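Q: Predict the bound structure with pyridoxal-5'-phosphate.
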Amino acid sequence: MNIPMINLKEQFRLVKKDILKNIYEILSEQKLILGKYCSLLEKTIADYVGVRHAITCANGTDALILSLMALGIKEGDEVITTPYTFFATASSIALVGARPVFVDVKKDDLNIDPKLIINGITSRTKAIIVVHLFGKLCDMDEIVKIGKKNGIYIIEDMAQSLGAQYAGKKAGSFGDIAALSFYPTKNLGGIGEGGMVITDRDDLGEKVKKLRVHGMGMNTYHHEMIGINSRLDEIKAAALFVKFPYLEEWNRKRQANARFYSEKLKDLPITLPPVPDDGTHIFHHYVIKTQQRDDLQAFLKENGIQTGIYYPVPLHLQECFKYLGYSEGSFPISEDAAKTSLALPIYPELKKKEKEYIIKKIREFFTSQTKATRQEFIDKSRSILHNS
Ligand SMILES: Cc1ncc(COP(=O)(O)O)c(C=O)c1O
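A: Predicted complex:
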């Protein structure tokens, strides 16, 4: 059996007819960028998240950069974030000229540890970028309090968490501003690159609308500020608009898959991710931890099962961030996670027999490991007895 990490072909079957119809319409009309479908998508997602502004842009990385630019983050400023995330979370900080300051994550969900944030705050700290990693919300009550108390902006990197909610509030509605990605593998994945900035603040919403088009307002070719070119194509917006109504169902299926895995794997010597039943986790990834990660991954690959490592090198140990002065040991929980974490396929279209096969193979790996360890122990004892 061959099981990929994600099965986009299967998903496309469901939405193909409607997407192709929209693409035909757009190509016939030749309104190709920031048109009707971008506006529809923006309105739909703003309503869904429960904020006033959703602004489409070219990708999630730009959404982070635009968020930082809108908040006026610049050279000389510091932005606190996690070292255990996708590169763009921290590179966006450096790209606007500011300094990323890392704070370690919590052992259970690998999200930034609010208790450690205080260690990273200095007089230069302007913002915190929290990442709702793998689709699970950070401890936003505590983080919002820290932001308010210290006069620090909160940016939510919600690239992996559209639809995750806590106490009736959705990811993207807790901080000052949020960045979303529509990269094809995301829970709401596009037919190419895509992103969105989300905010309830009118001042930031208006600013981002200008920043994404070179800083222009209503007056074409008059630039009020220096912005970037980060617009979304209509055909991509139209495809996302077709997929959006399925998001909740897809997220529920991911959650059901996570419950299935956790139930079937609970007696094995692996650390399972938290599986809350309150909607706070939408399982963009289902990540287990084991000291035998590399062997397990190789074994599953031999058996046709693809897995992923998110992320093999924590950001403070990346070559390009050497200038920040961190070293091995600076963030032990992130470093341990980089060595032990393994993401299993969790996509909504996963069939029951595929899930069962994955479980069977993981169990087989650990049973043979147990047998091998037992045999090693018996052999060792025999040789000790023999030599005594
Ligand atoms: C946590 C996180 N932040 C930011 C991004 C960047 O998004 P994009 O790839 O759309 O630029 C991603 C996408 O992989 C991500 O997972």
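A: The radius of gyration is 23 Å.
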